[in-house]
Amino acid sequence: MAEQPSTEITVAWEPEDTDSRNPLNWPAKKKWANVAVISAMSFLAPLVSTMLAPAVQLVMKDFETSSSAFATFCISIFVLGFASGPLLLAPLSELYGRVIVYHITNVLFVCFTILCALSKNESMLLAARFLSGFAGVASMTIGSGTIADMMPKEQRGRAVGVWSLGTILGPMVGPIIGGHVAENQGWRWMFWILSMAIAFITIIAFLVLRETNHSVILERKATALRKSTGNPHYRSPLAPTITPFEHFKHAIIRPTKMLFLCPIVTICCVYVALLYSIMYLLFTTYSFVFKDVYRFATSSAGLVFIAGAVGTLIGVLYVAVISDRNLKHLQASGKTIKPEDRLPLIITLPGSLAFPIGVFIYGWSVEAKLHWIVPQIGTGIMGFGAILVFIAIQTYLMDAFEEYAASAVGASAVLRGIMAALVPLGGLDLYYRLGWGWGNSVLGFLALAFAPVPMLLGAYGHKIRGMERFKVVL
């Protein structure tokens, strides 16, 4: 038997721009099928988070409790699960691949949603809600990594827009469905219907999703070559040089490291978390506002989320048209595309200003008891502003930290999950003390204070990223 060569043999794409195994070279239909599935998953998870909102009073009656803390916590504890999941799921996806994480968490998501329907008391419902959030956040955590794996930069804006749509639209559509189901079939039926919907998407995911993590695909190719040839020297250039345990340890620390040591990530995450927590505070109090002030029934209270959903849809269409077109224009003019090009004023200015304006309109129109359509217009403007900011910052983080896109977005998911879980706990007390007008104005002024962030990053982000003192070994 001939002696095996002792030098390392690099396993790469053959060639890189045409190899069909490279997700960047997949046919458009295959790419968009994968985007569609993770977008559907990203829609269902936040939908589950707020679907219970219009039925909270029915749950309290069923469990014979009058606790205002439980009234908001049974909604926000789901988002606390959102905050916990990325710390584990993002590194697992970088070590073992995206698809296996999607499949396992989808199955768990179904199981924990069923457990919500079977809850016998407050504690059981809260525990099941937390676990549902932990499992359901997978697509929202690593979806960015999947998109970065498949889409070249000039095509990511539209893909991120479709994916982000679910994360914003889901919380708004959930109460619309939940209010109707709860009033007619009872709140437990919401979870039975949801579990069936999640199970359906889980089956579709098994059929459609394919692995996109480049390092995992190449390592599998190297492993197959080592096995078929008997030559142990085939190696992927993307394979870690450390043990799997060390790799996992570094990966699990990376989102936290990026959150606290990378100024760009920190400021982006804080801004997104602030807007997200304000939205969830409003989601958890809408049913109280429109029932107490406008005397809406449970099913009608769920319909007040429609305006926000419409505003969000308009925002997605706006970004989808402008974001990628802007990059293609720069590319055609011969300019080098940089991550900050994802933050043009035409997107960041209307987005960062529309959100606080919508909050002010909503709060003071409720305070003045104007016709219910006026606060609805306010929520629509908020939805438009929020989705513009979210998509711009998500794509910016993906382009700025391309290799670790899942960790960067995971860091954002952790902080926004924590804030969205905790901030709403004081929502009703804030309104009881300050009223609907000044209570919402406090939130609006906070959002307004952060409005310059995306514009400043668009102008100076590349300089900040280039500073030696801000460079972190990831």
From TrEMBL:
Location(s) in or outside the cell: Membrane
Keywords: Membrane, Transmembrane, Transmembrane helix
Domain annotation Major facilitator superfamily (MFS) profile: ranges: 34-474
Pfam families in the record: MFS_1
Record-given protein name: Major facilitator superfamily domain-containing protein
Classification of source organism: Eukaryota, Fungi, Dikarya, Ascomycota, Pezizomycotina
SUPFAM superfamilies: MFS general substrate transporter
GO molecular function: transmembrane transporter activity
One Gene Ontology cellular component annotation held by this UniProt entry: membrane
Transmembrane segments: 32-56, 68-92, 99-120, 126-148, 160-177, 189-209, 258-283, 303-322, 343-364, 370-393, 405-426, 438-461
UniProt keyword annotation of Transmembrane helix present: yes
Membrane topology: Multi-pass membrane protein
Family in the record: Belongs to the major facilitator superfamily.
PROSITE patterns assigned to the protein according to its UniProt record, in alphabetical order: MFS
Keyword Transmembrane included in the entry's annotation: yes
Span list, region Disordered: 1-21
